[in-house]
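--- STAGE predict ---
source: upstream dedup step, 1 unique chain passed
mode: sequence only
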Amino acid sequence: MTVVARRVRAVPYRSASEAWRLIVDLVAPQSTSEARRELLGIGGIVSTLIMDELLRDSPCVFWGAGPRLRVYCLHGDDAITGESMNEEPLQFCPTENGWQASLPCDPEDQAWVTTALKKHGTHVSVRDPGGPIPAEDGSEEKNESSFTIDREAFLRP
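--- STAGE serialize ---
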């Protein structure tokens, strides 16, 4: 599976709601799309997750058309300097053809966040930060932080 990543500057460079708006502009650029309407509708909910810095290490993941997209937010000094940011437009639209999205959310907030998200649509779900990310086939893929390197094989001549 091909994976594309974007790193968006968030607080304090821009507000959490402005960061979410930029993410929506990246993933749903057509102003009349149903995906854009749904994503803008959940802006207040996602802004709380961005303010809690949950997207710093655990991405918001989109899949549907094209490669899988992982969106991280930069905070603090990283947001101000922007050294590792990547806010370039995508060459594909991940919110076409049966798209889905998964957001990291603290376990104690998952009940209310899930209920609030369902009021706006069925495409966005939540998961534990750092936990498995749902795959297109309904199974789960391991988060990239869970991979290990076989040092012996790596150093073998």
